Each structure stands twice: as C-alpha cells, then as structure tokens.
Amino acid sequence: MTGPDLFPCPGMMHGKRILVSVVENKAMHDMETPWVSVPAYAGPKDLCYPILALAVAKLQKVLVLPSPLITVDAQARILDAKKCALYLRPSSMATYVDSIIKEAPHVKSITIPEIVKFMKETEAPIYTYPKAWEERKDDPWLVFHTSGTTDYPNPLTYTQRMMALVDAVLATPDAEECFVDHFARKRLYMSLPYLHVPGWNGLSALYDYVYILEYGKFGVALLTPAIIEELCLTTTGTGALQKLESVHYAGNTESGGYLTAAHDKKEAWDYVAFSTHAGAIFKHRFDDLHELVFVRKPDSKLLSMFQPYPDLDRYPTLDLWIEHPDHKGLSKTKRKTHIYRYMMDLA
Asked: Cross-referenced InterPro entries, in alphabetical order (predicted)?
C-alpha cells in the first residue's frame, strides 16, 4: 500500500529514474515549492554533502564519504582501497585532512567553498545529467563505510540504483505501508549524518533535539535509537516526540537499509515487521535468538544488498533478533553474532 492518494505520481516512471535527474526536474519545473531546507544545524552535517554528491554524479564520478570520527589510519585504508586521489574539504578541516593525507601521499586536497557560497540567489549555469536510467543505473556513485566499532571500517559502494530505493518502492504496487508513505509530502527532520548509512550522531546535546523538534514544524523524524531513548527520559523530550505524526529509526549500512512495514502495535514500538518484499527470514542460532538472513527473490529490485554481490543467493547479516512474545512476525535486534561468540569463548 504505497499511498494510493499520492502514488504513483502522474507522468513519473517510478523505479526507472536516476536521482540526479529527479533533482534537476524538481529544480527546473517546480521552483516555487521548497524541497530542502535547513531549519537547524545538528553536528557537522550541512547541505554541502548532497550538493557535492549531486555534482559528482553529474560528472559521472564516485564520491567517498569518510567520517571524521574514525581514526587517521582507518581513513587512509579507505582512501587506498577505493583508489581515491582527491580530498575535498572546507578550510576548517585543513589541519585534520592534512594529517590523513600524510598517510596517503598519493591523495591531494583542495578547499571547497563554505555553504553560504552555494546559496547565492544568482542563478548558476545549467549543467544537466546526460544519461538515462538503463545506461547508468548500475554506475557506482557514493562510497559509505561501516562504523568500525568491531573492526576496521569497511567501505561500501552504492550504485545509482541502490540510492534510488525509495523510487523502487513506489514502483511496487503491492508494497505494504512503509516509511515512504510516512515521508511523502511531510516536513522531515533527519538527525543522521551523510557520512555513512545510517551513521552515528552524538554531537548535539539533548536540548538541541528538543528545540529542533519543537520549533521546526516537522511532521516526521528519522532518529537514532539512542536519541529516541534519551528523549523519552524527559517530559519535554517525550512531548516533542508526541507532536510528530510518526517517528522512524535507522537501518543498516552494509545491507543498504532494511525494507520494513508499518504495524499498529503501539506497545511494541521497538519491534520491526519486515515487508514481504524484503526477503527476510530468521534462522535459529541458540536460546530465543535468531539471525536475520536475506534471501534473494526473482524480482529482488528492493533487495539492494544483492546488487554489489550478484553471485549471492543469501545475505547473512550476523544480527541476532528476538521475536515479540505476543505478536508473531514482530522482532527486534539484540546484537551481532560474533560478539556472542567472543563472549562465549571468554566464558
């Protein structure tokens, strides 16, 4: 059920659109309607990230997005693995980036303008994306990475098709109600940084989130579970969340995001229902813990984790989940399988 009153949009070829072309069409034919706004600044993220990402896509290049929260050695490994030759940075990051490229001497750095330079009212020269969906849907575009909490961060290359998952959902007429329906034509606040998917953001104090949600006039918020839990510990935080139409929390970098379905069990808000199109199964490991495994389907357009691994029929996530005691089909994650194995080895 992908919003029968909203989708499909008249004249739109959902599931066969390059994201860059969508932005171009919006800019040229709907200039009066605001699409992206910056009501507040949370941590280091700003619109430079999507601006540069779109620019790189138009040039048919690849953009690596390393997080400044990982070590210099870890960044150097990522740059080397992806054969990165140029590091874009604002002037405020010069010292930090210089320390990284000392470990990767083949990488050069250049200074990009500050965000205000991109926001000038004068119209910029038009440079349109020249390729169609069938020509470039599998082109690499953005390189994210895992958090590196248990090992070195692992770079993960997302293609144009992987980044267009939302459009693929809209092209699936029997898809269950999901985040796409909740985000449609709503003002969305996203606390997650652009550095990796979904990323981690501990740079804003709790009162910043309360203030942003209170005065940002948002209908929907996409937050990390940790932020939601912290907000729920205070009256003001709970009140800010209650004013939203819906609250979402993020998925996973390695698999490109989990396709979940909305459910109506409010008391089980921290449990997840997977879409029938997600290819999700649970394999019992021990006690009441099951590992989430994705199984390829013949029409696996919505299973982005298989796109970089065309030879795989199954994608084990190593995430252990537990099913709700009363509501079958609803599960929540506990932790990684290799952490349990390590703890058992220590016992």
From this structure: Adenylate-forming_Reductase (IPR051414), ANL_N_sf (IPR042099)
Whether 274 contacts 256, CB under 8 Å: no
Contacts of 162 (CB under 8 A, 6+ apart): 256, 304, 307, 308
Instruction: Encode pLDDT of 138-173 as tens digits.
Output: 888 888 887 766 677 888 888 888 888 888 888 887
Fold for 20-159, please state it: Rossmann fold (3.40.50)
CA distance 150 to 264: 35
Same topology between domain 20-159 and domain 162-345: yes
Cα–Cα distance for residue pair 228/221, rounded to 1 Å = 10
Omega of the bond leading into 198 within 30 degrees of 0 (cis): yes
Taken in order 116, 121, 123, 127, the sign of the CA dihedral is positive
Domain boundaries, the chain: 20-159, 162-345
**CATH code for the domain defined by 162-345:** 3.40.50
Q: Can you list the residues of the chain whose pLDDT is less than 50?
A: 1-2, 4, 35-44, 196-203, 338-347
